[in-house]
């Protein structure tokens, strides 16, 4: 009984405070003059996230409440854009406001407006609350803003050069050949496509990024002191447990009282950082001895570019950029390859379509060692179309978060200007843009890769469609477009 009284007071106070904050934000939302969806919680509310993660039926239960009372639940779980496609904008128009007690989110799926927002990097910045977790190993290109971002961009962009792309091409072919050999020699069961493409992506990133090469199967390296874990295993654990990395301090994760799995991830973080330190020191020594040599991997190019500048990257910033390079490239690449394979397996007509191009471009050469990056990659338009179509409807990034910062900003949508208040999230709904029937046609939800070909003709000589600005933002856009776009495409 004594416990219920303070608990009741606490709950009442929380409910009252939530109501006050929601009312305050509602007043701000009304001034924008866009349709409003009221929600008692925001998408980043940790309590709500834990609730629907542990109890998945909560979301459909809320959505099924009578009189549309639970409509807000349709827009407040992470990744709702993928499930919703373009439906919300069919209902509300090209933009609407999700009003929550914590903040307002202006959700936009108008290509012209989105292009304008992505171009104005100083007016619409990345929300710190959503990107601070990326600083686990150090500040990096994806997490910084302003002049610091300009410095990171200047030093990291040249690292994604054609020499590195050629290395990506060669290693991707080598890994894919070994993966295919593994699949065709499998006498029992079915290959785990998602697992194997994750391995392929990890190995390509390791080689092209750091110069470490693995065999596709039984990838084992000798572990030398002071290490207790291979680089590959450390990197894999870090990348597949990123959420844990965001929630817990790195040094805390090795505490003896924590579960073994958490301690193992903590150890992987320490090992990964130690490996990066050793590699950076090695590259610096190599660069000092051979100043005129051109780097063949991302780390070498990054260190060379950094040392050539007066205000180069610190070691922590090198760690941070190497981490984000792996973080951004691993799961996205693995998912895109696995999903493309699944789509092709379900549609033999597209297998024939792509094989026609491969036979033309590759000729009679059956050895991947003979497949030249400079001559062949630019001609594989249908292969690129398959990648683009997969990213269009099944991409890893379903929205791009921005914020107005301390000043209000004007956004023009269909020739009408809207004033977005300070400290407001502005969400570019990329999934809705990629599924908009007005842009992609009535079959926008259908996987049809030839929509990316200007006009079907002679395989190897076709051209790709260039969508309207803001209509396709799988790699973001504007000044902050992903610097590794070409890298990932290869």
Structure description:
One of its GO terms (molecular function) is oxidoreductase activity, acting on paired donors, with incorporation or reduction of molecular oxygen. The chain crosses the membrane at residues 234-254. Residues 1-15 form the signal peptide. Its cofactor is heme. Helices cover 52% and strands 6% of the residues. It has two domains: 4-138, no CATH class; 151-397 and 437-470 and 474-489, Cytochrome P450 (Cytochrome p450, Orthogonal Bundle). The chain has helices at residues 4-32, 46-54, 58-63, 80-84, 87-92, 111-119, 128-131, 146-156, 162-184, 193-210, 231-240, 242-247, 260-289, 298-307, 315-346, 348-362, 373-376, 381-394, 430-434, 437-440, 485-489; strands spanning 36-38, 95-99, 104-108, 400-403, 409-413, 416-420, 425-428. The longest helix has 32 residues, at 315-346. It is built from 21 helices and seven strands. It is globular, with a radius of gyration of 24 Å. With 490 residues, the protein is of the alpha/beta class.
Descriptive key words:
single chain; 490 residues; alpha/beta; Cytochrome p450; 2 domains; two-stranded antiparallel ribbon; 21 helices; 7 strands; 52% helix; transmembrane; transmembrane helix; iron
Topology:
Layout: H1 4-32, E1 36-38, H2 46-54, H3 58-63, H4 80-84, H5 87-92, E2 95-99, E3 104-108, H6 111-119, H7 128-131, H8 146-156, H9 162-184, H10 193-210, H11 231-240, H12 242-247, H13 260-289, H14 298-307, H15 315-346, H16 348-362, H17 373-376, H18 381-394, E4 400-403, E5 409-413, E6 416-420, E7 425-428, H19 430-434, H20 437-440, H21 485-489
Parallel strand pairs: 1-2, 3-7
Antiparallel strand pairs: 2-3, 4-7, 5-6
Helix pairs in contact: 9-10, 10-15, 11-13, 13-14, 13-15, 15-18
Binding site for heme: 482
Keywords: Heme, Iron, Membrane, Metal-binding, Signal, Transmembrane, Transmembrane helix
Cofactor: heme
